[in-house]
Amino acid sequence: MKLLLFLIFLFVLPAINAELFINEVMYDPEGKDNNNEFIEIYTDSNLSGFIVADAVSEDVLQEIQNINSNYSIIVEDEFSIENTSANIYSVGAAIGNNLNNDRDIIVIKDLEGKIIDVFSYTKEFGANNNGKSLCRIPDKTGQFM
């Protein structure tokens, strides 16, 4: 499995845009997952029409809040965005087929279908059902904690 993840990153790395990357992932919040999962993207680009995919399916992003921020959050329907100071994009009822709690891969594609960033995780990374998320620490380094 580690070799597979390494190969994915090796082949996708040249396609990654340094000005747009996955910064945080909440894949297994406390309690029920529906309407509580999210993906935070660091970018100054409008993501309307971009695609977020997991290992099983993909969704087109629809903007629901636009503010002056370099952070955008991809959420599910009925996600509470009150007091959120980020651009918000909805994918409908679930991100992909719901972000898997054991392991999954997240892919961000631009309007032309070009892969912009990829992140895969396993529950061994942590942040599973404990109210915490996986975060890039510090921002932009490429390391997740």
Number of strand segments? 10
Side-by-side strand order of the widest sheet: 5-7-6-2-1-10
Q: Outline, from the CA principal axes?
A: globular
Class by SSE composition = mainly beta
Total of DSSP H or I helical runs spanning 4+ residues: 1
Radius of gyration: 14 Å
Tally of distinct domains: 1
Query: Helical amount among residues, as a percent range?
Result: under 10%
Q: What is the arithmetic mean of pLDDT?
A: 83
- What CATH first level would be assigned? Mainly Beta
Element order: H for helix, E for strand: HEEEEEEEEEE
State the separation between the terminal residues, measured CA to CA. 19 Å
CATH architecture: Sandwich
Please give a handful of descriptors for the protein shown.
single chain, 145 residues, mainly beta, Immunoglobulin-like, six-stranded mixed sheet, 32% strand, disordered N terminus
